[in-house]
Amino acid sequence: MTYQVHPFFHIEQDNQHIVTIKPLADAATEESTILDRIQEFVDLVAHVLNEKEVRGLIYTCPLNNKQTDYIRLFDQVSNGQLDPEIIQKTTWKALQWKTLGKPIVSILDSNCTGIGLATMLWSDYRIAGPPIKLGFPESKFGLFTGFATTITLAQLVGSTAALNLLTQAKLISNKEALELGLVNEVTTDSEQSLVLAKNWILENSKTSISTSSPTAVSAEFEEACTIVLKKTRGLLPGTNAVVQLLKTSQSLSLTEAVEAEAKLYHKVLNAPEPLHMVRTLYEGILQAQHRDRIKSLGTYAIKKIGILGAGMMGSGIAYEAARAGISVVLKDVNRTQAEQGKAYSAKLCDKLLAQGQINSLQQQTLLANIQPSDQVADLVDADLIIEAVFEDLELKAEVTRQSLPYLAENGFFASNTTSLPITTLAAATDRPEHFIGMHFFSPVDRMPLVEIICGTQTDQITLQKAIAIALRLGKIPIVVHDGPGFFTSRIFFNYLLEAITMLLEGIPASQIEDEAIQAGFAVGPLAVLDEISLELMLHVYDQFPALHNSQRRAYAHLSKMIKNGRKGRKSGHGFYDYDAASRTKTVWQNPALPTSGESPSSGIIQKRLLHVMALDSYRCLEEGVLEQPIDGDIGSILGVGYAAHTGGVFGHIDLTSLPVFVQECQSFLHLGEQWEVPRSLIERADRNFKFYTGFDSNWPGKKS
C-alpha cells in the first residue's frame, strides 16, 4: 500500500494499483467553499488517472456528504465569486475523466444529496452501501443542482425519471435508486462495497464500458414537463431551468450542454426567489427548530399529555404525541367518541404499515400510548393538557376549569384555538402564567407548523415548554402574541375577505380562483371558504371586537348564502356546487352578483391577493403580534399556503420593493379599509427599507 499526503483527501493505492480517494473528516476550513473542494477533487482525480501504473479509481463523496452551506453559497453569488466559466470548466474536467481509459467507481456510503450526489454520477459504476437516502432537495427552494446532473442523470435513468428526481425534492432509498438505474449495486456495509468496487475494476476495462446516450424526448417526457410546470406555475427558477435543459440537451453537443447548464445554474442562483425561499424554508426552519430556544429548561421531559376533544384536531394531536412516545389520554364527552378519536390513529397506522413505513410492533406501541376516556380524572398528573374543543368561549372555559385540578404541579395548559384570545381564555384559570395557545393545523399529521400564542400573562418557562413540546412532536414552532386571530388566522381571513370583496365588485369567481393559483397560493380562496365552511368564517368574525365596512359587506354576503343553504362543501353547495356521485365541483354562478364590464388584469388580482396578506402582516409586526419577520414568513407559507416562491409575506414585500408595494396598496384604498397603509410603513418606504439583507433581518433588534 502507498499513500499520498493531501490537505483535503486521503489517497491510498493498493498492491493492484487501484487508488481510493476519501475526504478527510477534519478537512473543512472557514475559507474553503463547495466549489473550492470540487475543483481540488476534480484536479486530483485527473492527476491520479494520468498516473501510468494506476489501474482504476474508487472514491466516496468529496463533500463528506455534508448539506449545502447555503449562506456561504449565496454570499459567493452576491460577491461575484461564483463564476459560470469556472463551474463550466470544472464540470467539463470531471466529465473528461472517462476519456482517460480507466474504470472509475463511486461508493455512496451514507445519505447523499444535491451537489454531493452530482459528483457521484461522474463515475462509471456506482455502489450504494447500507440503507441510505439519495436525491436532489434543492428544487423545493427554487434551485437546481447543476454540475452535470441534467446531463448524467438523463443518461442513467432517462429524461422523465431525471425530471422527477430533479424537480420533486423526493429522497429515494438505495433500493429505489437501484431499480431506477441510478446506482448499479446495493450492499450491506462499506467493506463489502469496497471489495465489490475493486472486483468490478479488475473485471472491466474502458473498452468494455459503454457510455449511455441521452434518450430522445418522448411524449411521456413532454407530458411530465407539462405536469411539473402546471404544479409549479412556472414560479420556480430551478424547475424552469431543469425543464429547459432536459428538453434542449438532446440537440446539443456535450460541450454545449455543459456550457448551457453552467450559465443557467449561475442565473438561477442570481434570481431573487431562491434566496428568499432558502432563507425561510431552510435557514428559518433550522432556527425555529434549534434546541437553544429551550436551553434554560435543561433536561425537561414530558411523560403524559391530556387532550380534551377527540374530533379531527384532537385526534390528530393525540396521534402525533403517541408517535413521539408520549402517553396520551384522549378525552371526550363519551367513550364512543373517544374511541373514534383513537380509531383515527389506527387508520393512519394501517396506511403506514401498508406502505412499509412502520412495522406491526411500532403500530402496537403507538396505539398503546393512546388511552381513550370519558373520565376527567384520567387526566391526573398530565404534564400538559391541550384543549381542542369547538371554538366557543364558554365551552372552552368550562372544560378548562373541569380539567385544571388534574394538571401536574409543574404542568401547563394549552388551547388549540384558531382565533379566540388567549388572555381571555386564560381567565378561566387561577394560573394564567401557565396558560398558552398552541394552534395546530389540520391535518395535524401532515401539517408541520405550530403557532404558539403567548397571552399577556404567559411566562417564559411556559413558552419554552410549549416550544419543547412542539419540537418533541417534530413540528416547526413560531411564536406570536395575543390579538384577534393571532397571526395566521388573521392574515388568512384577509385573503378570504379580498376574494369576497372582488366577487362583490363583479369579478368572476372562476377568475379569482385561477389567478390565486397562478399567484402561487396552494388553494383558491373560495374553495378554501367552502372547505372550512362559511359558518366558521362568520363565527371567527363574531370574535373580533369590531368589523370595518369591507368585513361587514362580506359578513352580509356570507349570511345570505348560508340562509339559502349554501354553507360550503359539507352542505353540497357553497361558492362551488358539489356532485357527490362524481366527486366533482363546479363554480357556482351567483345571479345576484354584479357583473363588471371589464375584469381587471390578472396581475392586479394576483397583487391584491398577495399584497393584502403582506400588508396585514406588517400591521402584526408593528403591533407586536409578531416579534420578527421570519416568523411571519414561515407561518404564512407553512400555515396558510402563501406563495412559497416569495419566501413569505415579508419576502414578497422585499421582492416587490417597499416603495412600489406601498404605492400599489394605496392605489387599492378605494376598494376597502383593508388597504389602509400604516404611517410607519410609508415612512419606511421613503427610506427604501428592506426587511432583509440577504439572510439577515433588518427589523430593529432582531436577526433572522
Please characterize this protein's 3D structure:
Helices cover about 50% and strands about 15% of the residues. By secondary structure, it is of the alpha/beta class. The strands form five sheets. An eight-stranded mixed beta sheet has the order 13-12-11-14-15-16-17-18, with helices on both faces. Strand 17 (about 450-455), helix 18 and strand 18 (about 475-480) form a beta-alpha-beta unit. The radius of gyration is 28 Å and the shape is globular. About 45% of the residues are buried.
Unreliable residue runs: 207-211
Main pleated sheet: 8 strands, mixed
Helix content: 40-55%
User: What is the radius of gyration?
Assistant: 28 Å
Number of helices: 28
Total count of strands: 22
Distance between the termini: 51 Å
Oligomer: single chain
Largest sheet strand order: 13-12-11-14-15-16-17-18
Q: pLDDT average, as an integer?
A: 92
Structure classification: alpha/beta
Molecular shape? globular
Helix/strand layout:
Blueprint: E1 2-4, E2 9-13, E3 18-23, H1 34-49, E4 56-59, H2 70-78, H3 84-95, E5 104-108, E6 112-113, H4 114-120, E7 125-128, E8 133-135, H5 149-157, H6 159-167, E9 172-173, H7 174-180, E10 185-186, H8 190-203, H9 219-232, H10 237-248, H11 254-270, H12 272-288, E11 304-308, H13 312-323, E12 327-331, H14 335-354, H15 360-368, E13 370-373, E14 382-387, H16 393-403, E15 407-415, H17 422-426, E16 435-440, E17 449-454, H18 460-472, E18 476-481, H19 488-505, H20 509-519, H21 525-532, H22 534-543, H23 549-563, E19 576-579, E20 584-587, H24 602-623, H25 629-640, H26 649-656, H27 658-667, H28 679-686, E21 692-693, E22 696-697
Parallel strand pairs: 3-4, 4-5, 5-7, 6-8, 7-10, 11-12, 11-14, 12-13, 14-15, 15-16, 17-18
Antiparallel strand pairs: 1-2, 2-3, 8-9, 16-17, 19-20, 21-22
Helix pairs in contact: 1-3, 3-11, 5-6, 6-9, 6-10, 9-10, 10-11, 12-25, 13-14, 14-15, 19-21, 19-23, 19-24, 19-25, 20-24, 21-22, 22-23, 24-26, 26-27, 27-28
